[in-house]
Design brief:
The structure is a homodimer. The first copy, chain A, folds into 4 domains: about 180 residues, FAD/NAD(P)-binding domain (3-Layer(bba) Sandwich), CATH 3.50.50; about 120 residues, FAD/NAD(P)-binding domain, CATH 3.50.50.60; about 120 residues, FAD/NAD(P)-binding domain (3-Layer(bba) Sandwich); about 90 residues, Oxidized Rhodanese, domain 1 (3-Layer(aba) Sandwich), CATH 3.40.250. Chain A is about 25% helix and about 25% strand. In chain A, α1 packs parallel to α8. The radius of gyration of chain A is 27 Å and the shape is globular. At the A-B interface, α1, α3, α8, β19 and β20 of A face α1, α3, α8, β19 and β20 of B.
Chain lengths: ~575, ~575
């Protein structure tokens, strides 16, 4: 056809196939071509750690439809109606001529492909840190199905038994679980003093780290990897600035970098720290060139956050793909942005974040308030009930919800997604406490944990609750201040588990507190606590009512305490 | 104290203790008294079916704190600081004198109790339908721990084996599961032609009913119970307008009615259909008298819904309790209302609703659009992946999300709560598709089912997708219209399960469709479908592109088909 719209899509993993498929649904007679450097297209890279773990038997499943059809060039041609060309690399965009120079990676042939609309879905690549030895055999990154497949083959074939993971981000944590489940000894080395430093605050990360250690992952935090040493061309050990760790394999997971070079060389606007700049319709600075997925920087859905964010996720890539197709087809629905939501499983614990961490929020707002809640995710009489810790971050003046973090064995993912919605819609903390969430014992207690956390934060904003975050409590306890630790749990609970700093502890069960006020000194500061600190908060109010002014409760209690606790008679 | 604020709270189950406890935290020196007719206070009535099921061993657990302390008068006095008086019935409010006449149900003593602020938390009671025989032994309602305890004792002691449940609402469905799990034969009789008639649309209810039947519950829909027959004073059978059903026990679950008589007699505004009228601070028409919990009518969180709603739930009761205490203490946070969210487990299936059903929406809006999506809740390579069906209801003009229903074995509760938040915040369907929900394979596919449903609905609103709801498809197929049913699944799938109306079916796998267009007649209307109808939708677009105009796809495909399907060679 003479007037056929020619759309060329560079990149075939997530945003590329999504935009191509939708475009063919919207404009059936468009001439859509997708090119990809690799052999495979449309694979679920996020599923790779679960292949290593052994969750599913064939690596090809990440490239198949739910009914087992391989998503290859033939599939896209037949089922979706667009052309897919693999092993083709785009080397140069000529914006004036509206052509892209492409090179076949096997034959070396080059040619110019014309376009009316161009879509850059070039993705990202793993950061290769400047560590000597990463060229050795048995060093892996985890981005492509080949990575997962070769790692499993080598682990099995070569009996690799000791793994060192460099970087404790998403991929690091997911791979730590995968490799432990596969029977390896796993050490994770992170240059920061916490896991997931870009993702969770120190307190929540430290809580999550407790769980990883319990599952046998050796965490080496605050150490820098200097080199990877080899023997006969293969990994033998990892040298940090403090120790040598023997290793049969190394996984590098220190983040990814957007593939924005093609765009940069074509003069398209890019972020100084990397990533193609796009508008709400995923248009680059050239309106005929779109970009989406891991190669772009995102805007935040809440307008207070002006900085562009590089948060590469398959969920966002698919949203971009849809927006690109819609805009080319004239069905305009702008993409307002992301809230930085992420979730990750570490054994039986879920880690999640949406919006800003406390650390990020304090860089943007002068008046940040936080609250930490710990407790069961279901009514206590439901045996499936599991613990959960939620941290909420808000702005004092506007009372807007800025961020939520979740860590726990309970249903954290549900609360995270509700919070993601609340932030997306610009909710205040007051509103979050009032959402009409579904209540039935198999799903939630009558006041949902997310609502209880909002209530605690409101109580702090309103000056009723004086919660002290665990980090702050620990800092003050460690500094040797003259503080009384008031444990208001039952005698049975007191026998089972204890807060450290035992010389500072006075144990008075909550029910006895009103009758024993004379046993408490009026000249000391008091930190009350219980298992989760609901009774700790109650104790604070009782003491306030009795004229004790310097009382706070330790937020999250013992369940939310990120550091060691101890067991009497153990 | 002379100036002590006297607060009297009538009702000790949910809203009562919540308001009393919070009030004492906010105003420690207030004189707070809670009175309750029964012996027990502060019990989790929603947990009763799970006691009958055998989920937890002691009925007292619904009256205990998570650490096993009984929530009785002594507990509330010691831990919370307010007085609790049981077996006391309030018989009259003197608004001018600001006193309440109370009568001790054991001694008959009466006296007047003065108040500055009065809280009515009188709850609701089961509706007792005018059916002869309900006074027989072995007829139960399920409202009070005594009900659950005596039912279990009689089932075990008297070897009761056949149960008839009158009413297929929340309690009916939960009790059907509980009694089946306890080993009884269960028949559920419902006067409407669907389960949960106040809660789900016919299509979603019919889908859920399939699951109940598979678990052995005998459903008798569209029949009216005329009487319960007894033998030696005990239940022997249930007579409907069509049949006699033998029964050893009867559970009546036809709804509850607000206990608003005390308020009515005191001249406080009440809704004509029952329920005390309150403002956003839970004040009745007398500003010194508050009311909350099951005895009031609620406002909807979305202002379009003007009608007061009677939706008695423990979650709302607790919200009311908080608002009441806050308003008395001068920390005003109004309660904006509910979205009618409810969730219920039926064996391994979750049923949920938030906002309006299609039926309700069509009574309020002239331009309602719906979409049904079916599919797995997780990426297909995750073995824990389970099916889910979501129905979304929106207003065409405003594109506002009006309601969401969920039925399925997958994680329906998460999607329900996100939808509840979206409706609470007044979201459009476009926005719902863009929320930055957490993505990782153990928790969700890259495009969350809720977002996919929103996208389908947007495609319908934008005229791209022509989905036909299963009910409408069935009606037209049954009417004998000349329709072609285009099954675009793989040959393997086609061998495993089939749509009825086999003479109308043409099977062409999606990948072969573009090459076989000449096999399809251009003069017939075509309904395309697949397992879940994503390929059905794709087929519609392919056929539209090839000039076939009268094509739609059956929403939800075979997984979302509420009626029978068949298995070849079975």
């Amino acid at each position: 056809m003479e007037n056929q719209l020619r759309v060329l899509i560079i990149g075939g993993v997530a945003c590329g196939p999504k935009s191509a498929s939708r475009l063919k649904r919207l404009i059936p007679d468009a001439d859509v071509t997708m090119i990809e450097r690799g052999r495979l297209v449309s694979y679920g890279a996020c599923g790779l750690p679960y292949y290593v773990e052994g969750m599913y038997p064939e690596i090809s499943m990440v490239s198949e439809t739910p009914v087992g059809v391989l998503r290859d060039a033939a599939f896209f041609e037949k089922a979706k109606g667009f052309k897919t060309l693999t092993r083709l690399e785009a080397t140069r965009i000529s914006r004036e001529a509206k052509t892209v120079r492409v090179k076949h990676l096997d034959t070396g042939d080059e040619r110019d492909v014309p376009y009316d609309k161009l879509v850059l879905a070039t993705g990202s690549r793993p950061i290769q840190p400047p560590i000597p030895g990463l060229e050795l055999a048995h060093v892996w990154y985890m981005r492509h199905p080949d990575d997962a497949e070769s790692m499993v083959a080598e682990i099995e074939g070569q009996k690799l038994r000791r793994a060192v993971i460099i970087g404790a981000g998403y991929i690091g944590v997911e791979m730590a679980e995968a490799l432990v489940r596969r029977g390896l000894e796993v050490t994770m080395v992170e240059i920061f003093d916490q896991i997931m430093p870009q993702f969770l605050d120190y307190d929540m990360a430290t809580l999550a780290a407790k769980q990883l250690r319990q599952k046998g992952v050796r965490l080496v935090l605050g150490e820098k990897v200097l080199s990877v040493q080899g023997k006969e061309g293969k990994v033998a050990s990892v040298q940090t600035d403090k120790q040598t760790i023997e290793a049969d394999l190394v996984l590098v997971g220190v983040g990814v970098r957007p593939n924005d070079e093609l765009a940069r060389e074509a003069g398209l606007a890019c972020h100084p720290r990397g990533g193609i700049v796009i508008n709400g319709y995923c248009q680059t600075s050239d309106p005929d060139i779109y970009a989406g997925g891991d190669c772009v920087v995102n805007h935040a859905a809440y307008p207070e956050i002006k900085d562009a964010m590089f948060v590469p996720l398959g969920s966002t890539s698919n949203k971009h793909g849809r927006v690109i197709a819609d805009h080319i087809a004239g069905v305009a629905e702008p993409f307002v942005g992301i809230t930085g939501t992420g979730v990750c499983r570490a054994f039986d614990v879920t880690l999640g974040r949406t919006g800003l961490t406390e650390k990020q929020a304090r860089q943007l707002y002068p008046d940040v308030e936080t609250a930490i809640w710990a407790g069961p995710d279901l009514p206590h009489y439901v045996p499936q009930s599991k613990p959960l810790v939620i941290k909420m971050v808000a702005c004092r003046r506007s009372r807007k919800l800025l961020g939520v973090q979740v860590v726990g064995m309970g249903d954290a993912s549900k609360r995270l997604d509700v919070a993601a919605g609340a932030i997306f819609f610009g909710a205040t903390v007051d509103q979050v406490g009032n959402i009409d969430l579904g209540y039935a014992p198999p799903y939630a207690p009558p006041i949902d944990p997310l609502a209880v956390t909002a209530h605690l934060l409101l109580n702090k904003l309103n000056g009723i609750a004086r919660g002290i975050p665990p980090l702050e409590a620990r800092r003050r306890l460690e500094s040797g201040e003259d503080i009384l630790l008031l444990d208001v749990r039952t005698p049975d609970e007191f026998q089972m588990m204890r807060m450290p700093y035992e010389k500072l502890v006075v144990h008075i069960p909550l029910g006895a507190l009103r009758g024993k006020l004379d046993q408490l000194p009026r000249d000391k500061e008091i930190f009350a606590f219980c298992k989760v600190s609901m009774r700790g908060y109650e104790a604070q109010r009782i003491l306030n009512g009795a004229g004790f002014d310097r009382v706070s409760y330790i937020e999250g209690g013992l369940v939310g305490w990120p550091f060691e606790v101890w067991t009497p008679n153990a």
